[in-house]
Design goal:
The complex is a heterodimer of chains A (about 170) and B (about 800). The longest helix of chain A is centred in the last third of the chain and has 25 residues. Chain A has five helices and five strands; from the N terminus they run E-E-H-E-E-E-H-H-H-H. By secondary structure, chain A is α+β, with helices and mostly antiparallel strands. In chain B, strands 3-5-1-12-9-10-11 form a seven-stranded mixed sheet. The model of chain B has no long low-confidence stretch (mean pLDDT about 95). Chain B has about 800 residues and is an alpha+beta fold. Helix content of chain B is about 30%, strand content about 25%. Chain B is globular, with a radius of gyration of 28 Å. Classes of the chains: A alpha+beta (about 170), B alpha+beta (about 800). The structure holds FE2/S2 (inorganic) cluster (FES) (2 copies). One FE2/S2 (inorganic) cluster binds next to loops of chain A.
Chain lengths: ~170, ~800
């Protein structure tokens, strides 16, 4: 059994850990580092429950080896709350009833975060396309799409407001 | 436009009941603080993994565990011999018994024979997760392969492979309902008959969280604690204690956060019981979490019907009778609830919303070399509704009527409720034309029919699919449940406990897994007690905290559980009234109760709030004579009848004339679940259920190959609908209160799953009616449509 000593920066905190070659990122996050917010729904990169950001890009952590992420910055759902305040995406999911059992939700949030970072004003169709790799069995997606739309609005308004403030 | 409620904060609500109060359970689910079973750890935790049969049907000749045992970090390896040596039977108890049902043993680990691919044969317990999987792989099982059969129809024909000696021809039970003679007579008299062979395919429930168990045993206290992804902790406790011969009062089953169930987490599975057994053997915490593929190969599948159905009609479109035979697929063994689904869960609902003279249905429950079937969202009602609504579609064509008109003509009239159907069920209340009217209006039916005709002239295929449904849910009452084979009562418990501070904790025996019970029950109780929403907390899903319970499935939570907590709240008010009257020195009849305040009639400033009464009840310094201290009430609510929600869904599709590609244009759902406690949560249930119903209609289906290999064994192969594959849902509702439920509610969790499949199939058949396509089995994939079009063209060509 080959092991690797790696460093993962998770939500801003650097961790040194020793992992097997085959250890998946999601298991390193959950089992070794105790970040259980990220869920495992399929282990085959089909469901998206395990989506996290690695170096600012949404990836499925169930098909990524932890060793391959040595030196990376990982962002999980646990990072979204800021000073006790929900992130606009989280707030929008709650307000639009974009979650029921919540199991897919961390992955949905991380994929949406990535989407909005690249496209602050996606159409409903684009949102549906972007969420193609994230399965939800409870909501029928409609309210998730509503939530992402609402969050995009809030975040745009905040950015616009920020810009004006800077003028 | 239909109404889409917006969540509001509880303090903005005039009255909590009926308001879309924002869900209180969301925050931990959004922040990652939620605790699903696999999120829970223990210091000395062990991991369990299974060796499962690769074969659908085989004799187990030898199991070589030596390689696994030799691996460092492997703590134990188990086979059926070890289970037997421990003295427990370890057999899954069937809790729905039909007369003469054959129930061959369904063991935790396979004994001399395996009967479906994925059946557990051996188990390994190891120090680490990956190691357990490695060791399970290292177990070498020698099999003698046997022929397999996976279709219930084929299983009961001569020469089929035989699964169980005690069940000749693989027949577990023959069962019937209705009146054969009256039905035959109606058919003899009929001007028209239509008939249909159809398959209601097997489905994988696919809760996003796979099944998971963490079991622990404390040898000093002799107590076992089980955290598991369950819909019904108390029932699971009962099942496991029975299987493991363990004292029920020393086992605690807890449902932490549960990532969906859809029926698949209300049954006992062999692997769950074995995990607990291993923890008892080893006296160390043991965790097992199904992988997705493992879950697909072992978690109870849904549906699985092969049906022949006929309908008799008069010339002017009156439905006279229906006659149905179904081969229902039980899979390799009789599972916990398996025998219920194709019989009592199904056949009594075959008449649907229609008044008719007679019905007759026979069911053969068959053993097949496939995963045992269990309830899946709707469990029998979707299968029934599919049959009647497909027949109605054909009937309309046969008698030359618009399908909406034929339905309307045959609906049970609204003034005839309560209505006893020809299948013997007593429908509580209904007003079936209202949702039809509303749905047709929302979809723009008349215009659509006109547009359909225009498009057809251009060679384009637009299809409109209507689905009227009524379902039975909210099981009990217990007496009826007993009469139809249930080895359980289906009441529910609710406890309302005031604390001395005036705050309230509500306990309920249901166990939510995404439905928002914490919010809904708090709305009910806070309103009834006249206290603040935030002063009410709700506890579910823990057998040590909740006195007793039956769990969440079959849309019974608000209908039965909600009624139980309401009843307890009312009892608490009555006890509080006695204390208030004593302290205000008036008779109880002279007290009014409003917004939490007891006040003397005619002297409103002589008043005491119920939260102050609670304080007094615990102080117990000055109580009416003979009254016990404290303010806590419990009820076991046993409903008077089932509840019968209903509605109409309409879907509009267009089929590409060249490729068979199908696109959704519109989906309209008008449901009537009686009073709504939280309209936003109701809407969420409707959306999710439609998605699953469309999943069945369009995409999903279990496929076994000829040898019984599960072809759809992973999410790669099994088509759970994705965000961009589903249409926008337009939802609305009508309100016909349930007359016997104290909240006036009916269930809503399954409505969409029941309504959507036939809406799709009807729509596609409607689109392709110029080609003479009468039926396409689900899932109606683009390929299936294309093939149906080609077949129709070929037949057409042949006839000319
Ligand atoms: S668990 Fe990673 S995509 Fe499903
Ligand atoms: S909320 Fe349950 S899977 Fe999405």
């Amino acid at each position: 059994m080959t092991t690797h000593d790696i460093t993962l920066t998770v939500n801003g905190t650097a961790h040194d850990l020793t992992v097997e070659s085959r250890t998946l990122l999601v298991h390193a996050l959950r089992d070794d580092l105790g970040h259980t917010g990220t869920n495992v729904g399929c282990e085959t990169s089909m469901c998206g429950a395990c989506t996290v950001l690695v170096d600012d890009e949404a990836v499925k952590s169930c098909t990524l080896l932890a060793a391959a992420c040595d030196g990376s910055e990982v962002q999980t759902v646990e990072s979204l709350v800021d000073g006790g305040e929900l992130h606009p995406l989280q707030e929008a999911f709650a307000q639009e009833h974009g979650l029921q059992c919540g199991f897919c939700t961390p992955g949905m949030l991380m994929t949406s975060l990535d989407l909005l970072a690249h496209d602050p004003d996606p159409s409903r169709e684009e949102i549906r396309e972007a969420l193609e790799g994230n399965l939800c069995r409870c909501t029928g997606y409609q309210n998730i799409v509503n939530a992402v739309e609402r969050a995009a609005q809030t975040m745009r308004a905040a950015t616009d407001g920020g810009d004006r403030g800077g003028d | 436009m239909s109404s889409t409620p917006e969540f509001i904060d509880a303090h903005e609500a005039q009255r909590l009941r009926g308001s879309p109060v924002r869900r209180r359970e969301d925050r931990p689910l959004l922040t990652g603080d939620a605790q699903y079973t696999d999120d829970i750890s223990r210091e000395d935790l062990l991991h369990l993994a299974f060796t499962r049969s690769h074969h659908a049907h085989a004799r187990v000749e030898a199991i070589d565990t030596s390689a696994a045992e030799a691996m460092e970090g492997v703590v134990a390896v188990y086979t059926a011999a070890d289970v037997a040596a421990s003295g427990v039977t370890g057999e899954v108890p069937p809790v729905w018994l039909l007369p003469e049902l054959k129930t061959p043993p369904y063991p935790m680990l396979a004994r001399e024979r395996v009967r479906f691919q994925g059946q557990p044969v051996a188990a390994v317990v190891a120090e680490r997760r990956y190691l357990a999987a490695d060791a399970a792989d290292a177990i070498d099982v020698t099999y003698e392969k046997l022929d397999a059969v996976t279709s219930p129809g084929a299983a009961t024909t001569e020469g089929a492979p035989q699964l169980h000696e005690e069940a000749p021809n693989n027949v577990a039970a023959e069962w019937e309902i209705g009146d054969r003679e009256d039905t035959d007579a109606a058919f003899d008299r009929a001007d028209h008959t239509v008939e249909l062979d159809l398959v209601n395919q097997r489905l994988l429930p696919t809760a996003m969280e796979p099944r998971a168990v963490l079991a622990e045993y404390n040898a000093s206290t002799e107590k076992a604690t089980v955290h598991m992804s369950t819909q019904c902790p108390h029932l699971h406790r009962r099942f496991f204690c029975e299987m493991l011969d363990f004292p029920e009062h020393r086992m605690r089953v807890v449902a932490p956060d549960v990532g969906g169930g859809f029926g698949s987490k209300d049954s006992a599975h062999p692997d769950e019981a074995l995990t607990i057994w291993a923890a008892l053997q080893l006296e160390r915490p043991v965790k097992w979490v199904a992988t997705r593929t493992e879950g697909y190969a072992s978690t109870g599948h849904g549906r699985g019907h092969e049906t022949h159905a006929e309908m008799a009609l008069s010339d002017d479109g009156d439905i006279l009778a229906i006659r149905v035979h179904t081969d229902g697929d039980l899979g390799g063994y009789v599972s916990t609830f398996g025998a219920l689904n194709p019989t009592w869960g199904y056949a009594p609902m075959l008449p649907g919303q229609y008044a008719m003279e007679a019905m007759h249905c026979t069911v053969t429950e068959a053993f097949t070399n496939a995963v045992p079937t269990e309830p899946y969202r709707g469990a029998g009602r979707p299968e029934a509704s599919y049959v009647i609504e497909r027949l109605v579609h054909l009937a309309a064509k046969e008698v030359g009527m618009d399908p909406a008109d034929l339905r309307r003509r045959n609906y049970i009239p609204s003034d005839e409720f309560p209505y006893e159907t020809t299948a013997g069920y007593l429908y509580d209340s209904g007003d079936y034309e209202k949702p039809l009217d509303r749905a047709l209006e929302l979809v723009g039916y008349d215009d659509l029919r006109a547009r359909q005709a225009e498009l057809r002239a251009e060679g384009r295929y637009l299809g409109i699919g209507i689905s009227s449904y009524v379902e039975s849910c909210g099981y009990g009452p217990s007496e009826i449940v007993g009469q139809i084979g249930g080895q359980l009562g289906l009441w529910e418990t609710g406890v309302v406990r005031f604390h001395p501070s005036g705050k309230v904790t509500v306990f309920c025996g249901t166990s939510g897994h995404g439905q928002g019970h914490q919010t809904t029950y708090a709305q009910i109780v806070a309103d009834e007690l006249g206290v603040d929403f935030d002063d009410v907390d709700v506890v579910e899903g823990d057998t040590d905290e909740v006195p007793m319970g039956m769990g969440t499935y079959g849309s019974r939570s608000v209908t039965v559980g909600g009624a139980a907590v309401l009843t307890s709240a009312r009892k608490a008010v009555e006890k509080a009234r006695q204390i208030a009257a004593h302290q205000l020195e008036v008779a109880t009849e002279d007290l009014e109760f409003e917004s939490g305040e007891f006040s003397v009639t005619g002297a409103p400033d002589r008043a005491i709030h119920i939260q102050e009464v609670a304080r007094q009840a615990y102080l117990a310094h000055d109580l009416p004579e003979g009254l016990e201290p404290g303010l806590e009430e419990e009820s076991f609510y046993d409903p008077e009848n089932l509840v019968y929600p209903f509605g109409v869904h309409v879907v509009v599709v267009e089929v590409d004339a060249d490729t068979g590609e199908l696109s959704f244009e519109k989906y309209v759902a008008v449901d009537d679940c009686g009073e709504q406690i939280n309209p936003k949560i109701v809407e969420g249930q409707v959306h999710g259920a439609i998605a699953q119903g469309l999943g069945q209609g369009r995409f999903e289906g279990v496929v076994y190959d000829e040898s019984g290999n599960l072809v759809t064994g992973s999410m790669q192969d099994y088509a759970v609908p994705k965000a961009h594959q589903l249409p926008h849902f337009e939802t609305d509702h009508t309100v016909t209160p349930c007359p016997h439920n104290p909240l006036g509610v009916k269930g809503v969790g399954e409505a969409g799953t029941i309504a959507a499949p036939q809406a799709v199939v009807n729509a596609v058949c409607d689109a392709l009616s110029p080609l003479g396509v009468d039926h396409i089995d689900m899932p109606v994939t683009d390929e299936a449509v294309w093939q149906a079009m080609n077949r129709a063209a070929a037949t057409d060509g042949g006839a000319e």
